Amino acid sequence: MTPDFAAARVDQEKIVDYLLGSSGMAAIAKARFFGGMGFSAEQWEAFADALRRQAGQAEVTLKASAWGTKIVATGLIDAPNGRRYKIATVWIDEGTGLRLVTAHPA
Questions:
Q1: How far apart are the C-alpha atoms of 76 and 103, rounded to whole Å?
Q2: Cβ-defined contacts of 32-35 (< 8 Å, 24+)
Q3: Which terminus of the chain has a smaller tally of CB atoms within 10 A, N or C?
């Protein structure tokens, strides 16, 4: 199975409220990390596209879960600040396509 990350669903709320938000300690840490890379809530779609590209070029591992196939993609992301960072993105394949679950430093 080759995951189709280009067509993967990345919800605005996942980016704005969770990866760049301040709704809890984990979210605050992720917001500092990804915000420091130059990603912003105002440009959330650019961040979503960067996550899809990162996953499409990353090392991928698959694992069955109760919710579907969990896919972890570990590799480099190109950030707006001009640097590259190693991150892991986690996706779920629920049978109808891929959906972003989370992202974090690797």
A1: 12
A2: 33/104, 33/105, 34/103
A3: N
Pull the structure tokens for residue 82.
């001009």
Single-letter code of the amino acid located at 66: A
Q: Please tell me the least confidently modeled range out of 55-59, 64-68, 81-85.
A: 64-68
Hey, what amino acid is at 2? T
Give dist(CA 19, CA 16) in Å, integer.
6
The pTM of the full predicted model, rounded to 2 decimals, is 0.93
Q: How many Å apart are CA 105 and CA 82, to the nearest integer?
A: 17
Please report the pLDDT score of residue 33 as a whole number: 96
Sheet holding 84-93, edge to edge: 59-65, 68-78, 84-93, 98-105
